[in-house]
């Protein structure tokens, strides 16, 4: 055999073996389940430098995964990195035998913590780790509907994030035209209630004397807001959104206003779902505005009712529904056409009554209102002040709520009282004009007394 040919064949064989080794290594970091070995290495390591490198490799490898491989990775976190049940049973048994032994109690506490919590902590050591983990949880949340068993993994993320994003770490900033462009671009992208169409639209919301925008930031996400609120300074409580967003509206000086209107609150990070920032933000903004503009006396929202239409459409199909009775016949037919057409005036009072019923009586879990925006503001101690007919004539407004919007009033002297009553019993603080609307909708939880026969 020709020596040159043998040498070439040998080099080819070595190259082929090297290619296979590289492919195998690449497979180790490009499939969800194979990432588990890298997780084990990160958990077993003791060196700080090696831990940072492993955490970086883990996040970089995760970023290259397909959606299917990411699902496999989350399933691996669920099955392989939970608490050691045998260790938990052993620690619990030891505590039962010596319940006053603090060391044993600490051991039980350590045993019950899932291993993936420590894994997430160590992964956070990587440069940009916090931001990457928030994005990872966003992917995880997208899997929960079809894979409910992963809620255990999600609870671990939420538990850690609730500490990492504690109010004490958050910084509130006012956003104006001098704010860096990278943040302004994200404000445009994150606006979730009333779309910001372009830069001119953004400027009208942040660069005029009667407009404000405030956001919370976290030190680990320097240029990426967590949540922001848009504020209009007005002379009265508004009953519709178009005048607030209008291009050619008459502007006020800040000193002319007596009312601060929170007309849009947007959560920016889907991976931080369940971590509450909005209540702190609103209260801090109120304090900031009161200090800068002592002429402001009224603090109120102009809020959407995102679940109203879906609720009405479902209730209309239920036999014996009080909503179906109120909106029966021609009213129901007219409701079905809202979107392409303006809502007809005969619907005004019955739909406002149904909205009051929906916000005040319909509950999701226990005593919590079914509507998420109502849960938020009422839980903060606000009062349901007014229901506004045809307040948002946009396509999305009609799709969500037939165009209905509501005002929640933050009465500074009543916030804590309202909050305590809501937390204790679910009591909804509401203006008399709203509670009167309920008379048109029988309360299904109360036995109705028939009218006496004449």
Summarize the structure.
By secondary structure, the protein is of the alpha+beta class. It has 21 helices and eight strands.
User: How are strands sequenced across the largest beta sheet?
Assistant: 1-2-3-4-5
* Separate helix tally: 21
CATH topology of the largest domain, which one?
A: Aminopeptidase
Give the termini separation: 119 Å
CATH superfamily of the largest domain: Malonyl-CoA decarboxylase, catalytic domain
Number of strands: 8
Gross CATH architecture of the largest domain = 3-Layer(aba) Sandwich
Shape: globular
Number of domains: 3
Radius of gyration: 28 Å
Question: What proportion of the residues form beta strands (DSSP E)?
Answer: 5-15%
Low-confidence stretches: 1-28, 448-454
- Let me know the average pLDDT: 87
Q: How do the helices and strands follow one another from N- to C-terminus?
A: HHHHHHHHHEHHEEHEHEEHHHHHEHEHH
Report the sheet with the most strands, covering strand number, pairing sense and barrel closure: 5 strands, mixed
Which terms summarize this structure?
Aminopeptidase; globular; 3 domains; disordered N terminus; three-stranded antiparallel β-sheet; Butyryl-CoA Dehydrogenase, subunit A, domain 3; five-stranded mixed β-sheet; 21 helices; 454 residues; alpha+beta
Detailed description of the structure:
The longest helix is centred in the first third of the chain and has 26 residues. The strands form two sheets. This protein has a five-stranded mixed β-sheet, sandwiched between helices. A three-stranded antiparallel β-sheet has the order 6-8-7. Strand 4, helix 13 and strand 5 form a beta-alpha-beta unit. It is built from 21 helices and eight strands. The chain has three domains: 134 residues, Malonyl-CoA decarboxylase, oligemerization domain (Butyryl-CoA Dehydrogenase, subunit A, domain 3), CATH 1.20.140.90; 135 residues, Aminopeptidase (3-Layer(aba) Sandwich), CATH 3.40.630.180; 137 residues, 3-Layer(aba) Sandwich (Aminopeptidase). The N and C termini lie far apart (119 Å). It is of the alpha+beta class. The N terminus and C terminus are likely disordered.
């Amino acid at each position: 055999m020709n020596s040159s040919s043998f040498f070439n064949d040998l080099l080819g064989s070595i190259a082929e073996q090297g290619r296979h080794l590289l492919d195998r290594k690449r497979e180790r970091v490009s499939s969800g389940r194979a990432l588990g070995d890298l997780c084990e290495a990160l958990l077993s390591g003791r060196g700080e430098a090696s831990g940072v490198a492993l955490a970086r490799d883990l996040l970089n490898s995760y970023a290259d995964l397909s959606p299917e491989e990411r699902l496999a990775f989350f399933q691996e976190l669920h099955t392989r990195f939970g608490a050691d049940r045998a260790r938990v049973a052993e620690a619990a048994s030891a505590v039962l035998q010596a319940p006053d032994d603090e060391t044993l109690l600490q051991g039980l506490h350590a045993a019950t913590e899932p291993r993936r919590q420590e894994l997430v902590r160590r992964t956070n050591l990587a440069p940009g780790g916090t931001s990457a983990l928030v994005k990872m949880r966003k992917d995880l949340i997208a899997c929960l509907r079809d894979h409910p068993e992963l809620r255990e993994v999600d609870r671990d993320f939420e538990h850690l994030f609730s500490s990492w994003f504690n109010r004490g770490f958050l910084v509130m900033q006012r956003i104006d035209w001098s704010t860096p462009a990278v943040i302004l671009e994200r404000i445009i992208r994150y606006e979730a209630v009333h779309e910001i169409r372009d830069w001119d639209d953004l400027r009208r919301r942040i660069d005029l004397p009667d407009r404000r925008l405030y956001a919370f930031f976290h030190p680990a996400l320097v240029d990426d807001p967590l949540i922001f609120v848009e504020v209009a300074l007005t002379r009265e409580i508004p009953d519709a959104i178009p005048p607030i967003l209008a291009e050619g509206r008459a502007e006020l000086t800040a000193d002319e206003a007596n009312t601060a209107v929170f007309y849009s609150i947007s959560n920016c990070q889907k991976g931080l779902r369940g971590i509450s920032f909005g209540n702190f933000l609103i209260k801090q903004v109120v304090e900031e505005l009161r200090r800068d503009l002592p002429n402001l006396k009224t603090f109120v929202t102009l809020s959407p009712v995102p679940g109203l239409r879906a609720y009405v459409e479902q209730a209309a199909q239920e036999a014996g529904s009080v909503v179906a009775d109120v909106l029966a016949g021609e009213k129901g037919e007219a409701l079905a056409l809202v979107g392409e057409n303006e809502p007809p005036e005969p619907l005004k009072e019955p739909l406002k009554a149904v909205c009051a019923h929906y916000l005040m009586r319909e509950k999701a879990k226990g005593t919590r209102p079914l509507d998420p925006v109502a849960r938020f503001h009422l839980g903060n101690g606000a009062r349901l002040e007014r229901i506004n007919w045809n307040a948002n004539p946009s396509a999305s407004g009609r799709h969500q709520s037939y165009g209905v919007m509501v005002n929640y009033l933050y009465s500074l002297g009543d916030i804590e009282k309202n909050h305590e009553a809501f937390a204790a019993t679910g009591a909804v603080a509401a203006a008399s004009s709203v509670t009167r609307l309920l008379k048109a909708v029988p309360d299904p939880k109360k036995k109705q007394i028939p009218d006496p026969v004449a």
